[in-house]
Every structure is written in C-alpha cells, then in structure tokens.
Amino acid sequence: MAWLTRLANLLRRRDLNSEIDEEFAFHIDARTEANIANGMTEDEARRDARQRFGSRAGLREETRDANVLVQLESLWQDLRHGTRMLVRNPALATIAVMSIAFGTGANVAIFSMADALLLQPLPVAEPGRLLAVGFRVLLGTTYQSAASYSDYRDIRDRTQSFEGVLAYDYETVAVTARAGGPPRIRFATFVSDNFFDVLGVGLSRGRGFRSDEGNIADPRPVVVLSDSMWRSEFGAAPSIMGQTLRISGIDCQIIGVSAPTFTGVHSIIKDSLYLPLAMLPRVGAIASRDVLEARDARILRLKGRLRPGVSLSQAQAELTSIQRDLERAYPETNTNVSLLAQTEFDYRFEQRPLDSSMIVVLTILSTAVLAVACANVAGLLGSRAPIRAREIAVRLAIGASRARLVRQLVTESAAIAVVGGVGGLAVAQVGIRLLRQIRFPSDAITPPSFQLGERALLFSLSVEMLSAILVGLGPAWQTTRVDLCGTIKSSDRGNSARRRLTGRSALVALQIALSLVVLTIAVFAVQTFRSELTKGPGFRTTHMAKVTVSPGQAGYSDASTVRFYARVLDEMRSLSGVQSAAVTSSMPLFAFRFVSLLPEGRRLDRGETVVPVWANSVDEGYFDTMDIGMIAGRPFAPSDDASAPAVAIVNDTLARHYWPGSDPIGKRLQILEPDGPLVEVVGVVRTTTYLFPGERPQQAIHFPYRQRPSGSMVLLARVTGASADHVRALGDTVHGVDADVPVYDAQTIEDFYSARVTAIGSVLVRLVGWMALMGLILTMVGLYGLVSYSVSRRVREIGIRIAVGATPARIVMMVLREGMLPAWVGLTVGLAASAATGRVITYVLPITHHVGARTYALVVPMVFVVNAIAALIPARRAATVDPTNALRCE
Amino acid sequence: MLVPKLAGGEMPKRAVKHPNDRLQGTLDLVVLKTLEARGPMHGYALVEHIGRMSNQVLRVQEGSLYPALHRMTQAGCLRAEWKQSENGRRARYYNITAAGKRQLADEEKNWAALTAAVAQLLRHG
Lengths: 890, 125
Known about the structure:
- The complex is a heterodimer.
- In chain A, 54% of the residues lie in helices and 15% in strands.
- Chain A contains 29 helices and 23 strands.
- In chain A, strand 7 and strand 8 (250-258) form a beta hairpin.
C-alpha cells in the first residue's frame, strides 16, 4: 500500500510543508502547556519547549526529505533552479552548452564510425559466444586468422569446447538473374553446411544446406539468397524458390532466402549470396582444384560457437593442444603456426588494421576535445563558486545537508550536459554526413552505413552523463566546502580565491596541452595528405579508363583466358582516342594479392618467416600505360609466354632488399608455392604506392600474364580527351569479343583515385581539422575566461597601481605575464604529449611520414598566438580601469 | 537521536543522524513497539510515553522523532492520519501497519541477539 501513500503525497505535495509545520506546532504547544502546568511562566515554558524540540528549519528539511516523492520533486526543483541559473547567465550557458555540444558531438560521430566498422555485434543469435578461430597467417603486411579445409575438418571434429565450428570464404561471382541479361558481379559467401545452424540464424524461406551438399567430391549447385538480394534482384517474388540462377557459368538451384535481420558476417559485404564451400573450386575466381585439399592452402575463416560455460581461455587451451597434435601429424605444413581463438572485436581489429588504427587515433582526438570541453565548463562553473558561496553557506547554516547541495549543483551541470548533448547530436550528424562521403569504388560492395542509430544515441547519453559528473562534481565540492562564518560575514573575497585560481589555471593549462595535441595531429594530417596528393601514387591518375573483366567467371580456361585478353587488347588499341592499353590482375590501391618468395639458393633459418610481397600479373603495355618508369632491364614482351623461361620484373625496393649494391638483372627468385616456379628478374621498375597513400615503401613483383594468368583482370586504356567518354567503349569492346564475360567496376581513373585517396583523405583531414578547431576555440574561451576572472578580482589592486602611476602598458604586461603562465605550462606539457602521440601514430599507422619539426613549427606559434590574443583582450580592459571607481566599489 | 541522559542534563546540539546507525534502529524499534502496544498516538504523546516508560533514561530530542516517523510512514510501516486530539486540536496520529508489525518482529529478534551478545561480552570479557 506504500505506493498509495506516495500517490497521496504527490497529490497534496503543496500541503506537505504546512502539514509538517502544523505537526511541529502542535508538539511545541503541547509541551508548552505541560510546562505551564508544571509551574513555569509562559515565556519560560515556550522557550524550553522550543529548545527541546531542536532546529525547526533543519528538521523540516530532513522530514521533507524522508518522503521519497519529495526527493523526486526536489530533483525537479533542482532542475528548474539550474535552468533558471543558466537563463540568468546566458553567456555562460551558451559557452557551456556549446562546449559540451562540441565534445559529445565529436565523440558520437567517431563512435558511429567505430560502431559500423568494429563494434557492432554480428546479427546472429548470442553473438558473444561466437569466436573467430584460425591460424595466424601473415598476409601482406597484416596477420589474418585463417585455416585450410583440412585444418578445419580436424578442428571441427576434435573440439569439445565449441558446440559447432563453421568455415567460410568470400569470392566474387558473376550472377545472371535473368536469362540473356548481363552478368553482375557479387560477393558470394562460400560456407560449410552447418553455417546457418552454428550462427543460429533462421531462413525466411526454404531451407539451409544439407550435409550431403557439403560433400567436396560431389558438390551440389544450390544457393541461398540474402534477403536484400532477393528483394533487389527478384522483387521479393515467392515463386523464386526452386528456380535456377546462373552463377559464374553454373546453374544453381535456389533453395532458400536468409532472414531479413541477417546481413552477413562482414561489416561491408552485406548483399551476399550463400553457396556450399564445396562449390568454391568450381565457381570462385580461384581456379585451382586443390584449394580445398592442400593443408597449407589457408584461405578459410572459421567461427566457433562456445558451449555454454566454456571460457575463451579454456577454448584456447584446447586449440593449442589440437595444434600440437596437428604439428605431430603434419610437420610439413603445421609447424611454426599458432592456432588462436579471438573475440569478434579482436578479430575485426586485426583484420582491418588500417581502419582500426584510424579509429584509435580519431578516438584519442575526440576524447581530447571532450576533455577540453569539460575543463572549460568546469572552469566556468568554478568561477561562479565565490558568487554562490554566500547562498550555499546560508543554506548550509540553516541545516541543508551537503549531499543535498552537491546534488543540486550536479543537477545544474546535468542540465548543461543534456542541452549540450542535444546540440552534440547535431554536431555528430554533420560529422556523420562527412563520413558518408567515403565511397568504395566497386560495384560489389555496399559501403558501411554510418548513422546516428540507437547505439550511437545510447553512447551519446552515457558521454553526457559522464561529462555532467566530471564537470559538476569538482566545482560542487569546492562550492560546498565553504567556511561558514567567514563567507557569510565578508564579501565574496575569501582567502580560498587564490587556491581556486590555481585550480582553474591548471585546468586551462590542461586545455592548452590537449588542444596542442589535437592541433598537432590535425596539422600533421593536412601536411601528410597534401604531400601525398602532390607526390601522387607513382602511377597515372588522369586520362585513363578502367574496367574489370572476368573471363574466369564465364568458363574460360587459363590458355583461353590469355587468348581472350590478347584479342581484347588488340581491339582496344585500334579504338580511336586510345593511346595505349594494358591489363593487370590487381589494381594498385585496391586489390591486394601477395606471393612469398626467396632468392635462389637462400634458405630460411628455423623460425624465420618470409614477408609476402605485393604481386600482379601484367601485359607488356602496363608500365608504359601506367607511366611507371623502368630503372633497369627490359619490359615484358609477347614472347614471355607459357613456353618461354619464367621471368619477372621487380620494384627497386625489392631489388635493394635482396641484392643491395649488386645488379638484380639475371638473378633468380624462387616463388614459394606448391610447384612454384623459379623466375628470372629481367627488369626493375620504380616503387609506387600499392596499398594506401603514405605507406612505407612496399616490395612488389610483376609477372607476365601469359605465364601467370588470372581469371579476372583490370583493363586499362590511356586515352586522349575526357576519360569518361571512353569508359563505355571499354565494356562494349569486351562484349564485342564475348557477350557472356562479366564486366564491372567500369570507371575513370580520376573517379577511382578520388574514391580511394582524395575522398577518404579529405574526409579524414576535415574531420580531424574540425576537431582541432573546436579544441582551439574552446581553449581560447577557457584562457579568456580565466584572465577576465582574475582581472575582475584584482580591480582594486589595479586601480591602486594606476592611481600611483602605473602606465597602461605596464598593466597590460602585468596581466599578460600572469595570464600567459598557464599557456607556457600548457605548451610545454602539450609538446611532450604531442611527441608521445606522434610515437603512437608512427606505431599504429604504417606510414612514412612522422610528426616532427615541420609540424611543430606551425602548431606551436599558432597555439601561442591564439592564446596571447585570448589573454590580451581582458588585459587591455584591465588597463582602462578607472582608479576612482575601482577604489570606491566594494 | 536517542541518547542517554547526560550528567548535566545538557543534550548535544545535534545527534547522530546516519540512517543506518544502531541508535536509529533502536528508535524505530521503540516507536514500533510503543505503537503496537498502545495503539494510535501523536508525536508528542510518543515522546512523553517513551520518556516515562524508560524512567527518563531514553530521552528523545523531541523534534528529531519526526523525520523518523515520516520515513517509516513512507516505508509503509506506519499509517498516519489527522484526528481530533484530547485537547480538541487537530493532531497527526500514527498507527502501526501489518508491514510494521513484521518489521517489529525482525527488529526485536535483532535486538535480543545484540543485547545477548553484548551481555555475554561484558560477563566474560
């Protein structure tokens, strides 16, 4: 029934005070009467009754607070009180709210990016119990978690820790939805037959894979569509079930559609279709038959669902023992590798090292901006402490509890945080719109959706609460820790003022240090980006059209693929406006293929591993078309075909790495693959950019495509006039040779380069730049506030100085000198912190550029000048103090 | 809140007010017990009664009873209503509820255990 009482209380809350008063009055009157009856005079009786009762004001407050609803009511009062305070100080409120808006906004925008790329849990049942399992395999410059099909079977059959282990791999396939229609390139997920079961994902239609459909020797051509693909390609037609879909030249029967909530196990590849893993050697671009047989063909990704109650470390211990067994059984292939279980987050973090590093750096920056903002608001609220001290002291004296007052002050800052947080959402929306400009230059990929979703809102709320507490607690504590008598008696010039000023100077110094860090990173980003843009990637980025062509997806063999490309190239070269044409199996800055190699005769020491190098297969026109200069030797020739000796062209980084100081021409390299050839180096080319702009020089090797054919290659044409005019002609030429060959990612090199480099770069630079600007403005406001405050407390002193003859210039200098003290401290600390952050950047981002003198030379004067201006404005005002007024006022 | 009478008859200005304090619990116990035994009472009568029954050893600082009464009312242990008092004025009467009786039984058990333990300690050191 307690709630009824409370409800009743709510309805008559207005009466509560008068009720308490009446109750108290009754008591005191009763005691007085009793005293009179005992022989006291009326005055004596009443005095005694009051004394025995105790402090009525304090007791009333305490009694009121005993009522739960009154506590809620007092929260509401605090909130109203707080907002009223803010409305009465519009300048303070605006600055405080804007500070919080900047701080939370930057963090929410970065969070939405981190969420889309790293944090969002998989859209499966109980994602927390799903772990990534695999061998740590060095792919290019990064480690990946992968396993071969044979490994997979062994792990799946031996494990006790996991309920089930699934395997999958992505490959592009050509999908022909309508007979006679153009084939479209899509990412297919090739999956083990238990895929949907282990994930705990249902199908909205049809069925998942049966175990006999996973049979490697006799794969069944069946396919499960993703819900989005079913809608986009087939208009959600229910009749699609049981029909066939032509996938890379093979008719596959549609057996099901996945649940709409399931968007795959990858953050970017969402619009997918699912095929049995057994189909991979037949449909995928990997033509080799033994991809599922060789134990060292580690191309699959594995995920295992932990049994309930089993921990990650238990699963890891079991995997380690499985690996030891495998090492004994297959020493050839399973030595020197480690089998790991990782959480989804760790797995993604390692899978996407560049994104992850970027997110780490951006998170550091946005946190710094938030810290600057919070320090700003804390400083502002702290500056009001002396003004409010008397109000607080009076309330403390009449018996308000300290906790109650602290709560009121924290509620005020919470009001700032909430209003600021709403503004922060607007700031975040601007940031997210900026992030959305990041494009992926491919038809097969759905860009990640950066959005202000539920999770971002929740995150923003927690940031607001955190900043409210950070901002409110300090000043609240300070304000309520007042010396009662001293404060009530004197004016607001307590002797704690100096201490308060020191505390605030420290806050401002911290702001300056943090904003210096953010600005350093921003200027570094701009300098890096600009120098990369000026330098270029080392290959042609104008007047070129490109298109990806996949005869391998249309049933071509290796030999016929080579003939096909040769013919297409011939036809293209005869087109008007085409100056030269070429093919490459991997487009630099886009596709990453690596091979492992060693110079002939060099043996690996035990425990030593080979760093795989970037590789592509190209024709004889490639270097000329792409403007990549030859340093030594000869380009490829049509005669470098399957019947000729195996040759290769390396870049100068590779040449210097293996043969420093000697001529690489004529040297031979062993390609470390099953039946890998020994290739002779016939030429050396300049090192260009291969993975991302600003990368450290990469080793690279190029093969003649006749000797190392690829089922899918990028066709390049250097053209006169606008590149856009020729894009279509490229596809038409290919289809003129064979209309069944899929053609995709047709674009100009300008669009490609802009999407891969310019757009991402400018988005990042602008993001970081905005954060730095926010930090700088907030810092300026902070220092300005500090100096103004200190001037206002010294008006009398300044007045005396002027009266005894100090010149305005001296006053300005005096205020400046003192005001710039926190700036000096901040600059010094900030420089140290920037150097440390620079180290972090060099460590997490594998780029050539590093934060150095070039950056500091710009940043330090900038921060100094901005802060000097912030301090100069109040200093000049101090010099205009009228001594007579200053001395008169109290 | 509930303090032993001091030698000079002076009382400390403000008594301990932590809600979990042992003495606080004791006040609750005494109030609940009194109301259970004597039926509805107003605050003044409660103070008088507790003082009389304990031979003035337990003297409540009179006002400090009220926050406790309101707190127990909010918690559902007591019910309060305004009624005509013996002298004809309106007074707020408190009565124990069923929940209050359960609470009282618990508190009595605790109290017995505590006093037994203290007695034991005093006897054997």
